[in-house]
Write a structure and sequence with these properties.
The protein has helices at residues 16-27, 52-67, 77-93, 100-119, 157-161, 199-203, 214-223, 245-249, 265-270, 272-284, 318-322, 326-332, and strands spanning 7-11, 31-38, 71-75, 124-126, 131-135, 145-147, 153-155, 178-182, 205-206, 258-263, 344-349, 354-359, 365-371, 394-400, 405-410, 418-431, 443-449, 457-464, 467-477, 484-489, 492-499. It has 501 residues and is an alpha+beta fold. The two termini are 50 Å apart.
């Protein structure tokens, strides 16, 4: 196969990962060109207060010149604002927590950017993601493919010309089916951000550094004397940069002061839903297991990949889980809501007996502060609350945008910070390989994560007409509507869905 006939567009960001991706493809003989995309103009929203993209473009152009590949520039800021930023604002306004990086990959890098690359003659688009793409072994395909030493699939000329088509011209053989596997670096796996990609998008995608580690990427960049070799990894919102989120959101969302309410343990003892969930979950347990409702705290920057560990058995009885009704699953997946009212009383203070007003003591909670808008806070948030006087850290456990209230709890083991079950609306369930789609009534065991840096968690997926329910083996902290739940079978990422509650 003559690789020089395969034209690859690398999304060159100015960072070391995409730079090494371009370098490796060029070394292997592909016809490579680079394209830098600008997706954001407003420097006022970043913490640095300058146009970071201008420096990134300058570095990217130097990298392209060093490698010896053509360099192009494309402005996709209009599409980015419409498909990613406006979605962010809308979700936060509803009190949900979106993930813009996932949307950026689905809507920009492998959609708007891909469309432009194809117009420039590209057969494939390559990025610097730490993940691997493979063709399903034994699946009928349009041509043979072999794995390259960069971890990607090297396609034949026939499959290149037909990438993305469902049937090869003059043949009844279907196109290949592709899967996404964890990256080889256990601490840098980035499959989570690609959890919404389709087969059509994967057919055009290459991930040249998925089979190597970050230190190896740095070494390659240094030996090749690439200008980005020592550049720090980007942080913050995809293509926007590091921002103060409330300040960023205030561009469109109104700031309205409200109460911050601390919730005490006594509230859960009296809450009917919480007590029902306790009893129901306890009734599902296998003999010899006990219910631990709160999370054992551990920092989340651990091994991200499956690391070859077996999935293990669920602590819940399979027959009992299968027998759950849709209504029971819905209740298990429902977060506790807070309806705490505070009454005032008058009292006299000081030697002049000045009349003042204060809140009466409430066994369920206490008003401990003020906030600038409930939509600016997310479940599990610890920083930016401005609440002192506590021995342990204070976390957001819920926000009510209608009442404009933020609820908090003290300590990692606070009852409101964790739960066992979540729900994904049927319309929001996405399978990377459609052949793996679950049908109503089906139950499977997978590993799941609900945010990027979270180690994979063992769980049972229950598909019903009313939605997909994820029942974790252990309680999970900070389950946030709007975030993506992503499930894996071994090394393979199979699908994802937006958490509805």
């Amino acid at each position: 196969m003559d690789k020089s006939k395969i034209k690859v567009c690398v999304g060159l960001s100015g960072g070391v990962d995409s730079s090494v991706a371009a370098y490796l493809l060029k070394q292997e003989g592909y016809d490579v060109f680079a394209m830098f995309m600008q997706n954001w103009h407003d420097a006022d929203s970043t913490l640095h207060g300058d146009c970071e993209w201008e420096e990134d473009r300058f570095v990217a152009e130097m990298v392209a010149r060093k490698i010896g590949i053509p360099f192009y520039f494309v402005d996709l800021s209009k599409q980015y604002r419409q498909r990613v930023v406006d979605y962010m604002f809308d979700e936060y306004a509803k009190g949900r927590t979106p993930n813009p990086d996932v949307l950026c990959n689905r809507e920009i890098k492998f959609a708007a950017f891909l469309d432009v690359a194809v117009k420039y003659g590209a057969d494939y688009v390559a990025t610097g993601h730490y993940c691997r793409k493979e063709e399903i072994p034994g699946h009928p395909s349009t041509g043979s493919g072999a794995a390259g030493n960069d971890g990607t699939v090297i396609p034949s000329e026939a499959s290149v010309s037909q990438a993305g088509d469902s049937v090869m011209a003059g043949s009844d053989r279907p196109s290949p089916e592709y899967c996404i596997l964890e990256g080889s670096d256990p601490n840098k796996d980035q499959t989570y951000f690609l959890c919404q990609l389709s087969q059509e998008q994967l057919a055009k995608a290459l991930f040249p550094i998925g089979n190597i580690t970050k230190p190896e990427v740095r070494r390659i960049a240094k030996e090749a004397d690439l200008p980005s070799a020592e550049k720090k990894d980007s942080q913050g919102i995809c293509f926007v940069g590091k921002v103060d989120l409330p300040t960023f959101l205030k561009q469109k969302l109104e700031s309205v002061e409200g109460d911050v309410v601390e919730v005490f343990d006594a509230y859960y003892e009296s809450n009917e839903l919480y007590r029902w969930q306790q009893e129901k979950l306890s009734g599902l347990l296998k003999e010899g297991h006990s219910l631990e409702r709160t999370v054992r705290y551990a920092p989340e920057e651990k091994v991200l990949t499956s690391d070859g560990k077996p999935l293990g058995e669920s602590p819940f009885r399979a027959d009992a889980v299968k027998a759950l009704t849709d209504e029971e699953l819905s209740r298990l997946a429902s977060p506790v809501t807070y309806d705490i009212t505070f009454q005032t009383e008058t009292y006299r203070s000081g030697k002049h007996h000045i009349k003042k007003t204060r809140y009466k003591e409430n066994p369920f909670g206490k008003i401990v502060g003020r906030h600038e808008g409930a939509q600016f806070y997310t479940i599990g948030q610890r920083k930016g609350l401005g609440i002192g006087g506590h021995a342990d850290p204070v976390f957001v456990i819920a926000s009510d945008t209608e009442a404009n209230r933020v609820y908090v709890g003290e300590g990692h083991s606070h009852k409101g910070l964790s739960r066992f079950c979540l729900r994904v609306d049927t319309s929001e369930v996405h399978w990377i390989r459609p052949t793996q789609t679950m049908i109503p009534g089906e139950i499977r065991r997978y590993r799941v994560r609900i945010r990027y840096r979270q180690p994979l968690q063992s769980a049972t997926l229950i598909m019903r007409e009313s939605g997909l329910y994820v029942l974790f083996d252990e309680p999970q902290r900070g389950i946030s509507p709007g975030q993506f739940a992503v499930w894996y079978d071994g090394e393979e990422m199979l699908g994802s869905g937006v958490i509805s509650r």
